[in-house]
Write a structure and sequence with these properties.
Elements lengths: L4 H7 L7 H21 L3 H13 L8 E2 L6 E2 L1 H13 L6 E2 L7 H17 L6 H25 L6 H16 L4 H14 L5 H6 L8 H16 L27 H5 E2 L10 H13 L7 E8 L1 H4 L9 H5 L3 H10 L9 H4 L2 H8 L1 E5 L1 H6 L6 E7 L4 E7 L11 H16 L1 H11 L7 H11 L6
Parallel strand pairs: 5-6
Antiparallel strand pairs: 1-2, 3-4, 5-7, 7-8
Helix pairs in contact: 1-8, 2-4, 2-19, 3-4, 4-5, 4-10, 5-6, 5-7, 5-10, 6-7, 7-8, 7-10, 8-10, 12-15, 15-17, 19-20, 20-21
């Protein structure tokens, strides 16, 4: 095809999408909507939706329903509210090389614009939506890799998803190659260059930046359609960016680097959680016999601390407490996303007895994947050690389809009801085959109010 981002975005057709990529997008659709369902219950998402209603009323671009809500705002407002909603539960898909997440920005943004366009009389099929998703993911991933290679600070996912969303939405709106190029430049320039480690060190509702990355990308596309200029996007053009765009349209980074989460917390904690889970099971241990935990891991992960989280935000960016929760309860699911869990005396006991060790070797190895080694120390002084490992969910240790479905229903059923969740699974799992009426029905399932 071409290594030129704008030309790629303007020319890509549905027949160019490999079946493996479509299968991944189906999985991400289902996985993200499960996270969105439980995310609709959080205080963070409720505040974001109130803000969207106050600030982003419908206009000439049309009305878009907010994700899992149904109330109408502008496409940018729905993208903002939806991205914050998904990001409020740290369980959505991600990309390890970029140390971040794309779907949490992409799905809310593209669903919002598609809803506004459909309201204006446009017929949109599932195949159309798959094309736009593919563009948004691939461009976001590549722009993110450039940014991490060329910028001194570690920025949130909102910084580079703004570029992918801008290019994909511009294609949705019928923009030509040059307009798409300007949309990417506008999205990059105005995207949130927010500092990820600030949120790791001081966890709050600002999260991964996608709450502003998504609407920044949407706004950039609408501006570019009207003639606003902003090119070049430095993450897409120039000598420094060129190596990261080689093979565009031939090799899909989306296929190579998309992972899925088994637990609703920062992925940097996942190898430690997996190791603790396996040590407990393999050795027949019970939590009352655990006197202490040692976690050797990479530098960034040691800053996840979180021995006594006071909020869901602090739980999401913790490592000691989620590991302790796994040791005590043998799971980390919806039931652990509660204030009662944060006060559990046995989880707190083990969390406080957890030592995080900054391991230079594991830091060096954690460029491509995230590594950790865990030791459990029992009350009688024995040590049970797990060797260094990476988390489940990467392409070398993928979650099975049954695990993705179980995760979806664990999140969605209590919020949507089993019947609605089952229909959502049925349609999302084949969304790219749906005609315009079928995709409208799927959109209605995810863009109307939840029962929570």
């Amino acid at each position: 095809m071409t290594v030129d981002m704008a030309g790629f975005a303007a020319a890509l057709g549905t027949d160019d999408l490999p079946e493996a990529l479509l299968a991944l997008l189906r999985r991400s659709f289902l996985d993200t909507m499960g996270v969105a369902a439980i995310g609709s219950t959080t205080g963070l998402s409720q505040i974001a939706r109130k803000g969207a209603l106050a600030l982003f009323g419908p206009g000439e671009a049309g009305a878009a329903r907010m994700l899992m809500d149904g109330r109408e705002v502008s496409p940018a407002g729905a993208a903002m509210a939806g991205a914050f909603l998904v990001d409020s539960i740290d369980a959505h898909d991600g990309t390890t090389p970029n140390k971040g997440h794309a779907g949490s920005a992409i799905f809310p943004a593209l669903l919002a614009v598609a809803d506004a366009e459909r309201g204006r009389g446009r017929a949109i099929t599932g195949r159309d939506f798959a094309l736009w998703l593919a563009l948004a993911y691939e461009i976001s991933y590549r722009a993110g890799q450039v940014q991490h290679a060329t910028c001194p600070d570690y920025h949130t996912s909102g910084a580079w998803t703004a570029v992918g969303v801008a290019a994909a939405v511009a294609r949705m709106l019928g923009c030509d190659r040059e307009q798409i190029r300007h949309a990417a430049g506008i999205g990059e320039y105005h995207g949130p260059r927010s500092q990820m480690m600030r949120c790791i060190d001081f966890p709050t509702m600002v999260r991964d930046g996608v709450g502003w990355g998504a609407p920044s990308g949407v706004t950039a596309a609408y501006l570019a359609r009207e003639g606003f200029t902003g090119a070049p996007a430095l993450t897409c053009e120039g000598a420094a960016a060129a190596p990261f765009w080689q093979g565009l349209g031939e090799r899909w980074l989306t296929l190579d680097h998309t992972h899925y989460k088994a637990y609703p917390c920062c992925r940097w904690a996942h190898p430690s959680i997996d190791a603790a889970r396996d040590l407990m099971r393999e050795n027949g241990l019970t939590h009352d016999r655990i006197a202490g935990v040692e976690i050797r891991t990479f530098h960034y992960a040691t800053r996840l601390a979180g021995h006594e989280p006071k909020s869901l935000d602090e739980f999401s960016y913790a490592i000691a407490f989620p590991v302790a929760a796994m040791i005590v309860r043998g799971r980390i699911g919806v039931g652990e996303l509660t204030e009662e869990t944060l006060r559990d005396p046995e989880i707190l006991r083990i969390s406080r007895a957890t030592t995080l060790i900054d391991d230079p070797e594991l830091t060096a190895r954690s460029v491509a994947q995230r590594w950790a080694a865990v030791t459990l120390i029992t009350t009688d002084g024995r040590r049970f050690e797990a060797p260094p490992r990476t988390p489940r969910g990467d392409t070398d240790q993928p979650l099975g389809d049954d695990e993705i479905r179980a995760k979806f229903h664990g999140f969605a059923d209590p919020v949507l009801g089993a019947e609605r969740a089952a229909e959502l699974e049925r349609l999302a799992s084949r969304f790219d085959t749906l005609d315009a009426d079928g995709f409208a029905a799927l959109s209605d399932l995810v863009l109307t109010r939840t029962e929570a």
